[in-house]
């Protein structure tokens, strides 16, 4: 048996794009540097919304990718929706988006929340366990990692552990499970939530190691499990930022990267921006706010109803991750919105670490006491402002605007290797060795 082999079971994998794929793609990229040969088990035909072919470049030659067929119910939902309403149910996120739902979409979301537990990828579990049990034995792999969401992926780990107690199983939680705010979006009943808790408890009790991404989630899972939980944060890939060049901008560019969904609420920030623009014509004329990525239609409508905001705001569609570096380079200030998220004090999205890597100042709205706020303070890279403090948001914006006018390019101190993907992978490699 070769103890330097590890199998990662992940639903999201290139060419899937978005934040869900980044964490384990980067771990796999750097694991060979620390003596580990990664095997990745992922669906052959997954349903995902964002596609990013450029991420394929980060898959190392040492990695073996096993693409295994999956059946998901979205095709069935689309067929029924077309028959009933003459329209498709669209994508997986359409079922839980903030758009006004049709009657069928409401019913299908309720069915998904209460009868397909923990998630629609549950149908992948049994055939995957059967296939992987033989594959692991044949290839002498004794360590496996499951990463969720989707949390049904952890049930594959549970099934494999039951079949082979000698396996060392690491369960990685990129989001909460039973206490995840997402469950509220899919109308989960109290009975269904108890089923989620029961499955979650089995995972937490059986896995050899439990890993998560923020100190808040560490405490949450330790409270739920009564056991030690490991912290492996997200990070930034310094190779992605090797060619980063911050260029002077003709306008003061406030840029937000990533999805603005129904839970994310930038409205307080935008109201403060509007008020400052009304009082300061020079600021108004020279400022632009750019939301890069998928944006909730109701928020777009909110912006367009304001003559001031509609003239200052642009919405840029999702771009391949490799192209983000150029957008970072043409920014003046990075914007982070945690307002609206459940347990936002424990939320440190992956883009926050990339923001840190740019050296650009960061303005964030959300809990002033929390993991993201602590990270901004510790790295002297920005400030977290409670969304109710509109005057503070305005004064902070104005200060950065003045610095931009003066071409003050002083950067905060470097965040170093602590939050680099390579550095965090070293921590993972040490955990695997133990």
What attributes does this structure have?
17 helices, single chain, alpha/beta, 7-stranded parallel sheet, 434 residues, globular, 13 strands, 6-stranded parallel sheet
Morphology: globular
Whole-number mean pLDDT: 90
Runs with pLDDT <50, length 5+? 92-98
Question: What oligomeric state do these chains adopt?
Answer: single chain
The percent range for strand residues is 5-15%
Count of helical stretches = 17
What is the percent of helical residues? 40-55%
- Sheet with most strands: 7 strands, parallel
Question: How do the helices and strands follow one another from N- to C-terminus?
Answer: EHEEHHHEHEHHEHEEHHEHHEHEHEHEHH
